[in-house]
Design a protein that fits this description.
three-stranded antiparallel β-sheet, 3 domains, single chain, Arc Repressor Mutant, subunit A, globular
């Protein structure tokens, strides 16, 4: 249990262990610290920010998150379909994960966003803070092989007004700093579909994101160009300010 807790603290970018001592990281201190903006995770914006932190790590991306959010073309899947895909992806990347490990990764993702289907204990029935986001839903069942019928899960599109405009601005700024640092202009396609992008991570519709950029003229400048377009940052990116504006 303690080992799992430590893993998730680091995965959510909340705290880290250095020289044997645990301390809050800047995001964890700002949001969940003693004087944090939302220390008890009472606001849905905090849930979206936790999802963002968990899904967008550059140095240590979670394998299931990376595959499901950024590598798959279809939004729907069954457990056996996902296992087969992740096995191929793992081999391509040179990993040596067993099927048991891969299935555990997939099940953790499903449980994180859809809750537990068949809890084996009272603890398993407790849903985490990401279930309320509605990112992953169950849509019926379908045949998986000759003798199995499995639940179908699907990633859903989320309107920006459910995520929050300030959360989207924070995500754009974070994406720019971690993956496009030093570039004054990025393509709208990258912002919508790129790995770790706001569009792909928050499951935003492209038109919705385009409208948001055009409404937020103080931060971003969107210039259409064919089916792509480009986005320019208009002010110095300040993560702490963008984070504070989420709770303003």
């Amino acid at each position: 249990m303690v080992r799992a807790l430590r893993f998730w603290l680091e995965a959510f970018n909340v705290a880290s262990s250095r020289a044997g001592s645990w301390s809050l990281l800047p995001f964890g201190e700002a949001v969940l610290g003693k004087r944090g903006l939302d220390p008890y995770i009472e606001r849905v914006e905090t849930q979206w920010l936790l999802h963002w932190q968990l899904s967008t790590s550059v140095e240590n991306p979670l394998f299931a998150w990376r595959h499901i959010l950024y590598r798959r073309m279809r939004p729907d899947f069954t457990r056996s379909e996902l296992l087969a895909e992740m096995r191929i992806e793992g081999e391509r990347l040179g990993y040596e994960h067993s099927d048991v490990t891969l299935q555990q990764h997939a099940d953790v993702f499903v449980h994180s966003y859809a809750g537990s289907l068949n809890p084996a204990s009272p603890e398993d029935a407790l849903d985490g803070p990401l279930v309320d986001l509605g990112l992953l839903r169950r849509f019926g069942r379908r045949r998986a092989g000759a003798d199995r019928i499995e639940p179908v899960f699907a990633l859903t599109r989320i309107p920006i007004n459910e995520v929050g405009a300030a959360v989207v601005n924070y995500a754009i700024g974070s994406y720019w700093q971690t993956r496009r640092l030093g570039e004054p202009i990025i393509t709208f396609r990258d912002l919508t579909h790129g790995e770790g992008s706001p569009g792909a991570t928050l499951r935003l519709d492209a038109e919705d994101l385009r409208d948001h950029l055009e409404r937020t003229e103080s931060l971003w400048s969107y210039r259409p160009s064919g089916d792509a377009g480009s986005v320019t940052v208009l002010t110095p990116l300040d993560p702490s300010r963008l984070l504070a504006e989420v709770y303003a």
